[in-house]
Fold these 2 entries.
Entry 1:
Amino acid sequence: MHPSRLERFLALLVTVFILLVIFLPVAWMVISSVSPREELLATPPHWIPERLDLSNYTDILAPSAESSNMATTFRAALINSIQVASAVTAIGLLLSIPAAYALARIPMRGGRTTMTAILATRMLPAISTVIPLYLVASSLGLMDTKAVLVVLYLSFVLPFNVWILSGFFGTIPREIEEAAHIDGAGRLRILVSVVLPLARPGIAATAIYSFLLAWDEFFFPLIFTSTRDAKMVPVAISEFTGRHAVDFGAMATGGVLAAVPVIIVVLVFNKLIVTGLTAGAVKE
Amino acid sequence: MAHQRLGRIGLAATATALAIVAASVGGVLAQDKVSLNMISMAQAGMTPDEMNAVISEFVELNPGVEIVPEYVAYDALHDKIATGMASGQSPFDIMLVDDIWFPEFAEAGWLTDISADVPADMLADSSQAAWDIVSYDGKQYGLPWLLDQLYFFYNEDMLTQAGFDAPPTTWEEMTDMAQAMKDQGIVDNPIVLPLGQIEAAITQFVAFLYGNGGEFFDEAGNPVFNSPEAVGAVQWLADGIASGLINPASTTYGEEDARNAISAGKAAFTVNWTYMYDLANNPDESAVPGQIKMAMMPAFAKGVEAGIPSATNNGSMGFAVSSGSANPDAAMAFIEYLTSKDVQKRYSAHVTPLWTSLASDPELLAAQPVLLAMFAEQWPFAHVRPKVPYYLEMSQTLQVALQEALVGSKSAQDALDGAVAVAVDLAGE
Amino acid sequence: MTHAGTTTKPTPPPKPTRSRPRLALPDSLAGWLLVAPTVLFLAAVFAYPVVSTALTSLQDAKLTKPGEATFVGLENYTDLASSDAFWQAIWRTVYFTVVSVGLELILGIAIAAFISRRFAGWRFLRLAIFVPWAVPTIAAATMFRWIYNADYGALNGLLFQLGAIDQYVPWLADPFAAMNFVIVTDIWKSTPFVVLIVLAAVAGIPGELYEAARIDGASRWQSFWRVTLPMLKGGILLVLVVRTVEAFRVFDIIYILTGGGPANGTLVISYVAYQETFRFFNLGRGAALSFIISLFVLMAALLYLRLLSTRQGETR
C-alpha cells in the first residue's frame, strides 16, 4: 500500500513543479510590489531587489495624513469587498441549498427545466444587462451602495451555486435519506440533519466559489459604484492606472493584499473539505 | 413547521429589503445645498488630492454649493459617463471628456453648449488648438483641460555614442541614425512606438500621417487616409518593423510599454506624451536617468518639402457641463474656476496651462523649464483626431487595419483602403 | 455525482409523481417552496433586463438615442450571421474555450488526483493551488502582461538565464501566439476551480460505497472504476458547464493582456459585444450578440448534460 521510494521521489518532483508554476508569477508580483521600477526593467531581472521599497505597503496599511487618496480608497475597498463577498456567500448558500436540494432530490414536474432556466440566467453576458439593471438600480436610489452589489452578485452566484450543490446532493445515496424518512423525519429535517453533513465538501467548495466570484467581479462595481462607500477591490486596483501611466508597483501590491483575505477564507472552508478527504482515507 | 420557518425567513428578507431602500431614499432627501456631481480621472493631470484642494477653495467662495467628486480610471471614464447618461438619470453635472468623445456625446445631447459663456479673457489668451479639443460643429461643449500632445523623445547618450550631435529632424534621418546604432551594436531595436491595438496607435498614426503631408478628411469631408501620403507613412512603419529598426513588439505596446523600453535602455527613440519626460529621467523609474531628452517631432522629407517641418497629435481633454444638470450655472462656474488663470498658475505641477501667457510666466518657466518651452514650441503643429460622432468605431477599424499592415497580413494600401471603406459606410449611416 | 436527480433515480420528472403516489403531492409542493426564493429572486433581478435586451436586439437602437429606436425584426441577427468578422470572433472564442477548458479539466483532475494520493506536502499544495485564483483577475492579467513583455519581461529573463533562448522574444506579437498566451494565463488562473470541485467530489464519496464494493469482493481498481469514476463524471459535468459558460464569455483577461490584438488575433465574441455596446453605442447589435453568446453556451451545456448524464445511467 505504501508508495515506493521511487514513487515518493517522483511525487516530490511533481509537487515542486506544480508549486513553481503557481508561485513564480506570484513571486514576480511580490517582487514588483517592493521594487523600484528601475530594477523591474533590468536585464537580467533582479529577482531580489537591491533597493527594497516598502512604500506601497506602508501607504496602504499604515494610515497617516500623508497617505495618498488612492491608498485610502484601497483600504476602504478592502473592507467593502470583504463585507459584500461575505454577505453574498452567506445569503447565496441560504437561498441555494434548499433550491438545490429540491431540484436534486424531490420529484417535481418541470424540475429539470427549472434547473436549466436557472443556469441560463448566468449565460447572458453581463454587457447587455448592465444598462437595464443600471436603470432599475438608479430609479430605486440604490446606486453606489453595497446593497445593490450584494443583490447583483447574488444573481450571479445563485445559478452556479444551485447547479454545483444539486450535483453534490445528487451523489448522496438515496437509501440513507429513505432510512431517515421511514424514521418519520420531514423533508427539511432530512435536509438539515442528514443531507447537509454529508454534502459538507460540496457546500464548502460552493462557498469558496461564490466568495471568489464576488471578490473578482469588475465590470458591475465599476459601473454601479462611485465613491468609497461601495468601491470594490478590483475597481480600486484598476484606478492605479492613469490615462497613460500605470502605477505597476501599486497594482502588484493591490494584487498581493487582495489575495490575503481569500486565502484565509479558503483555509477556513478547506477544513471542511479536508474532513471529507480524511474520512475518504478510510475507504481505501 | 417548515412553512412557518420559511414564512419567517421571507418576512425577514422583505423587511431587510425595505429597510435598505428606506435608508437610501432617506439619504437622497437629506440634501439642502446645491450639490454637483463631478466625474473625473484618478491619475493624470491634477492628483485627486490637488483636485480636492481646488474644490474646497471653490466651495469656500461659494458656500451654497457642494461638489461631490468621483475619480475613476481613464478606461472607465467613457463607459461610466455613457451608461449614466444613457439611463436618462443624468447622474453627473460636471464631466471630464476626452477630445475624441466630444462629437458623440454632443450628438447624443449629453453636453451643454457653452459657446456663449466662454470667458472673453480666456478666449483671448489661449490658442486655437486648445479650442479644437472641445469644439464640435462650430460650438464649444466644454473648457479645455490637460492640454497634451505627442513629443519626440530620444536617448542623448546613445545618439552621441553613435556619432550624432543633434536629434533627427526627419523620420528618414531617424531611420539612418537607428541603422547606425543597430550596426554599432548600441541597441538592437532603436525605435519603439506604442502601436498596439489600442487608441495609442491612432495618435501615432496622426503624427506620421500629417508629417507626410496627408490628412484624415479632405475639404469636402471625404475620408482620405488611404492617400499615397498615408500609405507611405504606414509602409515606412511596416518596413521599420520588418527590419527590426522599430521594435517588433511595438504592435503589442501601449505608451507605458514604450516608456519602459526607453527607461530600460532598450531603445533610443520614441514618441510619447508629456508624462514620460519626468519618469524616464527619474532614477527610481529609469535605468537611464538624465539621458532622455525631448525634441520637436520630426516629419517625413516629403512633408518638410511641402512646408510641414513637424506634426503631432493633440491629445487633450475638456471639462463639460452635463445637459441634464439641474444646476448648469453652478457647474459652469466651477469649471471656469478650475481652468482660471489663477488656479492654473497655483496648481501648475501636473497641468499644462491653457492660458498662453502662463507659458511664458517666469515662475512657471523656472519650475518646468523644459516642458513648458517644448509645449509652446510643439503646440502649433498639433492636429486633433477626426471630430466625427462615429469616431470610436472608425478608430477601431483603423487600429485593426494598421495592425494588419504592420504584422504583414495585408499590404498598407489594402489595409487602409478597407478602413476608408468602413469610414464611408459609417458616415452614411 | 450528477445532476438533477439522475444518479439514483435514472429518470426524474415527469414520471416520479406516479411512482410514489402517497408522498408525491406534499413533496412536490415542498420542493417548489424550497426552490421558490431562488427562482423569484432571479426572476426579480433578470426579468426586466432580459425582456428589455430581447426587445433591443430586434431594434436599430443607439445608446445615444434612446427614444429613436426602430423595429428591424431579425436584421441584427442576420447582419451578424452574414459577417465574416463575427464568425472569426466566434471561432476564436470556440478555440479559446475548447483549449483552455480542456486543459484546465485535464490538469485539474490530474492535480486533484495527485493531491488525494497524499504525498509529502499535500496539505500545503492543496492550499497553494488556490493562490492563482485568489489574485484578482485585473491584477493577475496586468502582471502577466508585464511577465510576457518583449523587452523586460520576467519570462524572457528567466528563459534567457536558463539558456533556453539566446535573445528576448516578443511573445505577444504574433496573433495566434498571443491567443495561446492568453489561454496559458486563463489556465493558470482557473485550474484551481477544477481542483476545488474535483477534490470536493472525491471527498464527498461516502465511505459506505467503497465498503459495499469491498463486500462485493471488488479490487481497488474495480472500486475506482465502479465508485470513483462515476462520481467524478458528475464532477466533470459540473466543472465543464461552469467553466464553459465563463470561458465563452471571457473578457477581462483579454481587455488587459492584448486589447483584442494583435490584428484581432485575440478578439473574442464578448469583446465584440462590449465594443458594439459601450464603444460604438450600437445597442441593438450588442443585444443580439449577447443572445447569440447565450445560445452557444446553452447548446454546449445541453450537449454536456446529454453526453454525461446518459452514461451515468448505464453505470447503475
Note: The mean pLDDT of chain B is 91.
Entry 2:
Amino acid sequence: MIGYIVRRLFQSVVVVIGVTIIVFVLIHFLPGGTARATLGARATKAEIHAFMVANGYNHPIPVQYLLYLKRLLSGNLGFSYHYNESVVSLLTTNVPKTAVLVGLAYAASLVVSIPLGIYQAVKRNSVGDYAVTAFAFVGYAMPTFWAGMLLILGFSIYWPVLPSEAPQGATVGAILSQPSGLVLPVATLAIVNFAMFSRFMRSSAIENLVQDYIRTARAKGLKWWWVLYRHLLPNSLGPIISLIGLSLPVVLSGAVVAEAVFNFPGMGLLFWNAALKQDYPLMMGFTVVVSVATVLGSLFADICYAIIDPRVRFD
Amino acid sequence: MTAVGEQPVDAVPVVGGAPGADGAGNAEGGTLHAPTPGWRLFVRVFAENRLAVVGVALLVFVVGFCFIGPVVYHTNQIQTNFNDANLAPSAAHLLGTDDAGYDVLGRLMVAGQVSLEVGVGGALLSSLLGAVWGAISGYVGGWVDALMMRVVDSFYAIPPLLLMLIVATIFARTTFVFIVVIALVSWLPTARLVRGESLAIRVREYVEAARSMGVHHLRIVERHIFRNVMGTIVVQTTLQVANAILLLAALSYLGLGPPPPSTSWGAMLNNGLNYIYDGYWWLIYPAGVAIVLTVIAFSFVGDALRDAVDARLQRH
C-alpha cells in the first residue's frame, strides 16, 4: 500500500515537472517573446533589451527554465499587465467561484447518474435503459455551449422561469446569494458530466450485478433495494472515483465555455478574456495551477480507490 | 461478439461417424466449411449494425451537403450585404440570412467544409503522432517508455481547451494551425492504446523469430506492430474526428476560430447567441443541429468499426 502511494507520488512529481516544461516551451513561442507581448508593439529595442535583462531572458534556455521553476516554487505565478494584479491574487479571487460551479455540476451529475446507472444495470435492455443511453449519447455529442443555449431558450425565453445570466459578484457569497442564476450554468456542465458518468456507472454495475455475492445476498432473503444499496453500490463506485479525478481537465474546459455563455464571473471567463487580450502571464499561470490541481486530484482519487478496493494495490 | 448465425470458423471436415465436435450438429460426415475471410467478416458485422448504417448514411449526407451543396445552391459568401441582414427564411434564402447578410444555408455549407477539413485533418494527424509515439514507446520499453508515457500524462493533465486557446492566440489562425492544435490535444488516447498493443506484441514469438533472423527494428515495428493495431487506430481516428469537430466548435464559439469571411459551425452559433432574445431561430438551431448530427454520425460509425474490428480479432 505504501509502495503504491510512493510510486504514484513520484510519478505525479514527474508529470508536474513535465507540465511546467510544456508551459515554459509555449511561453518561448510567443511572437517577439514575452518582452514584446508585455510592452506592446511600439516598444523600442532599448526598452525590450532592458526588460529582458531585468527579467532574466538573456540567460541560456535551461537556466531560464530553472529560474522559472524557482519563481513557481516561491509562489510567483507572474503578473498580469492587463488587469494590473499579480496572477496569484487574480486566481484567489476567481478560482473559488469556478470551484463552486464545477463542484455543484459534479454533485448534480453524480446524484443523477449513480442511481440511474444502477437502474440501467438492473433493467438492462429495457425501454428505460435505451432511453437513458440515447439521452447520454446525445448529451455527449452536444457542444457545451449549444446545451447552454438550448437551456437558455427553454428556461429563460420560452418559459421564463430562470435568469439567463449567472449571478455576478466578486465573492463566493455573492454568487451563492442568487441560486436561481446558478441553475442553468450548473445544468449545462452537468449534462456532459452525466453522459460520461452514467455510461461508466452502468457498465460497472452490470459487471458487479453478475457476481456471486449479489446472488447469495438475494438467496439469503435480503430485500432487493438493500442489496443494491449496501452491496452493489459501494463495489461499483470504484471506477467512478477514478473517473472524477481523470475528468477534471475536460470538465474545466467545459467550464470555460459555460462561463462564457452565462457570463459567470469565474476563472474560465477570466481565462477567455485573457486569451482575447493576449494576456499571457495569466494564461500560463492558470494553466500551471490547473494542471497541478488535476495531477493532485487524480493522485487523490487513485489513493481513495486503492483504499476502498484492495485489488487495485498490486499493479 | 461473432455475428449471429455464423458457423464456427474452425469447423473441420469430420470423417466417418465421429460425432460432430464443432457444435454444428453433424452426426456423420462433415461439412467442408472454409473460414470466413477476415474482411468479409468485418464488413458483415459492420453492415449488420443498424446504427452504423444510419451513421454512414448521415455522413454521406453531411459530406455531400457541405462539398457538393454549394455547386447546386449558389450563394455569395464573400461580400457582406447589410441591407439583407437577419431576414427570416424565404424562397430566396431558404434558411434566412445572418447579421452580415450572408445566406445561412450557404454559410452552413462553407462552415461545414471548414469543420470537416479541420476535424478529419486533426484526427489523422493526431493518430499519426499518437501511433508513432506509442509504438516507439512500447517497443523500446524501459526508461524510454516510462519517460514517453510521463510526457503523455503531462499533456493529459492540461485541459485541452486551455492549451488550444493558448496556441490559438500565439500563432496565426489558419486551417493548418487549427489542425496542429487539435492534433496536439487529441493524440493521447491513440498513444496509450498503441503503446499497450506494442508492449503485448513485442514479446510474441514471431517478433523474436524475426529479430533472430536479423530483421531491422523499424521493419518489425512497421510490419508486425502497425499492421496489427491498424484496426484500433482506425476506430480511434473516427472517434477523434467527432471530438475534433466539438473542439473546433468550442474554439470558434469563443471567437478564436477561423477568421472571416471563413467560418465554422461554432462561429455561427457565437453569432446566433447575440440574437437569442430576438427570436431569430434560423441563426441558432441549424448550426447546432449540424454539429450534433455530424458528431453522432462519426460516433456511430466509430462504435460500429470497433465492434467489427473486435469481431475480426476474436476470430484470430
Note: Residues 2-87 of chain A form one domain.
